[in-house]
Structures are given as C-alpha cells and as structure tokens.
Write a structure and sequence with these properties.
Chain A: Keywords: ATP synthesis, CF(0), Hydrogen ion transport, Ion transport, Membrane, Transmembrane, Transmembrane helix, Transport. Chain A: One of its GO terms (molecular function) is proton-transporting ATPase activity, rotational mechanism. The complex is a heterodimer of chains A (about 190) and B (about 260). By secondary structure, chain A is mostly helical. In chain A, about 5% of the residues are buried. Chain B has one domain. The chains are: A mainly alpha (about 190), B mainly alpha (about 260).
Chain lengths: ~190, ~260
Amino acid sequence: MLASILATAEAVSTEITQVAETKNPILPTVNEMFWAAVFFLLLWALMKFVLLPPITKVMNARDEKVRSDLQAAEAAESARVSKLAEYEAGLAGARAEAGALLEAARSEGDAERRTKIAAAEADAASFKAEASTAVADAKARARTELTASITDIAVGAAEAVVQKPIDRAAQTALVEDYVNRSGSQN
Amino acid sequence: MIFGLEFPPIENLVEWPNVFGPEGSWYGFNKIALINFVALAATTVLFLVAGRSKGLVPKGARNLVESGVAFIRDGIIMETVGKDGIRYLPYLVSLFFFIFITNIFEVIPFFHMPGNARMAGPAVLALITWVYFIAVGLKHQGLKYFWNSVAPPGVPKALLPLVIPIELLSTFIVRPFSLAVRLFANMLAGHILLVTFSVLCITLFSATLLALVLPFSFAMLVGLTGFEIMVAFLQAYIFTILAAVYIGSSMHAEH
C-alpha cells in the first residue's frame, strides 16, 4: 500500500516536473521582456531628447510660416477689398461730380438759351413794334395825304361842276369818313 | 499529422534559441531581441536621416517621418487628448514606430516573425503604458486620481458599490491585459496563418495531383501577406490610440 502510494506520488512528481519543464509558448520569457524593455525605453529617451525635437521644430516652423503666410494673404485680401471699396467710392464720387457738372452745364446752357431766346424775342417784338409803328405812321401819313388829295380833287371837281366855292371843311370831313370806312373794310 | 500535413509544433514557430547568453538566463539574446533591437535602430536611423534634411519642404525620409509624426499628433493625440496631450508625443511616436516595425518583421524575408507574436514585447509595452498613465494621473490629479478613476464624478452614490469594483477592474487590471493580449493574439494568429499556408504550399509542391491546389494556396499566402502588412499597421495604431486615450483619461477627472 505504502509502496503503491509512493510510486503514485513519484509518478505525479515526475509529471509535474515535465509540465514545468515544458515551455508555454504563450507566457512571456524574462530575457525577451528584458530586451524589449531596454530597447523601447532607449528609443523613448532618444525620441524625447534627440530624434523628435529637430522634426517637430521644422514642422512647427512650417506651421508657423503657413499660419503667417495665411495671415499675410488675409491682410492682403483685406487691403485689396479696402482699396477696391476706396476706388469704387472714388469712382462713384467722380461720377457724381461729373453728373453734377454736366447737370450744371446743362442748366447753365438752358438758362443761357432761354435768356438768348427771350432777348431775341424781345428784339423781335421791339422790331415788330417799331415796324408796326412805322407802318401805322406811314399808313396815317398816306391816309392824311390821300384824304387831302382826294379832298382837293373832289372839292376842285365839285367847285368846277357847281361853279361856286364849296365848304372845304365839310368836304374834308366827308372824305375822311369815306376813307376811314374804306380802310376799315381792307 | 493533419490530413497528411506535417505541421510543426507551435513552440517551433515562436520560440528561438539564444544567440548569446545561456538558455533560460534573463539576458539571453535571441531573434525576438534582435527584432526589438532592429526596431530601435531602424527608427533611430530613420529619424536621424530625416532630422538632417534641411528646408521647409519635406522630401524622402523626412516626408515619411513627418507623415508618421503628423498622423500621431493630429490623428491620435488631437482627437483623443487635445492640445494638452502634445507633450506625450515622444512616447506615443516611440510606441507606434516600435510596434509597427516589430510587427512588420512578419513579412520581411529571412525574418518572417513578428516580434509581438511573443507575449514579452506586448506585455512590456502594456506594463510601461500602465505605469505611465497612472503616473500622468497622479501628476495631474494627485492621489485623488485613484478615487476619480474608480468613482467617476457624477455617478450617484447609490451606484458606487457597483461602479467602484467594475472601474477598479477595468482601469487597473483589464487595461494592461487587454492591450497586451490584443496585440499579441493578433500577431500570433497572423503568423500562424502565414506559416499554415507556407507549409501547405511546400507540401503541395509535388508531382501528384495535389499540385493542382497549389496556386490557390499560394494566392491565399500572397493575399494574407498583404493582409498582415495592414494588420501590422492597424495593431500599432490601435495600441497607440488606446494608450493616448488612457493617458487622456488620466489627465482629467471627468473622463
């Protein structure tokens, strides 16, 4: 019995030893962990103090340049927009000024034209009045002369017919009345 | 044997003998350690070459490095933490490049092994991230950070007995485990898939009728290789963005 138990215990012990000696491919080994830790920690230290700074320095410088270039471009764009607005405002002012000048010139021209037309019309009216006066005077003179001539002829002819002097003043009134009535019909 | 296919044991796919140092020693240097070293060296050289280039217009290596840094700064930090998180750029850039390069060794000829298909790398990175976000929390909030983390402001007092254990578990226990296991499991799964199709292609490369299936298996291998490149990037991105989220949540009590 004891021998049997001892034999079983020995067999179990042998089996346990064999299992312990068999490497488990899943479990990490100390030497691999040691070297992985050494190389990774070394890489981390190198990365922090030697490898990464020059890279990030240039990347940051480029980012900064891109940022400043963008800002400069935005400033140039703002200046362009401002200049354009200024130019358009100037152009609008010049256009308004030109329009005002044109309008003033047009008004001035119109006023001058109206003045000249008025003057011409006044002149024409004056000439017309003078002419009318002259015509009226000539007409009056002609009528007077005609009345006198007709009166002389008529009175002479009548005195020759009746062989006696006729009232000249009365005949003159008759002739004037006749001439006036004849004139009013023309 | 799986349907006549001689598949290597899993430990043959992920375990590598030491190049120097005795087996089982804490300093034994194997292929995984070499991959981690190359990740350090490649990142260092890449950044040094990029840093030497002058002028404001990036070209070549500088273009690549600046794209990566800008991606982490604008795509991860600004989106998850905000402007205050820029100070954590060195840590997150290191994390991203280290994980991505160790992952991409999955598809690099003669290596064909992602460093993170072993639990050690993801566990270390998750542990460092865990310590880091706790340190950030202590720096910004003092000892109240622990209370604010397990009992977020605004939670009704009646719910605290329920919320505190959940938050304690999720913030301080689950976070590092989920970070490590997600990265490790994804990379290991991808590695096993590529090995499976590679072994299948080798097995099918014979003078029998089975050779007719070879083009399909090879096409799958090529497709999965492309897929693994994407997974390598994606896992690096996920790990980095989660680290940023955890750091950001440690900075402000209201998170």
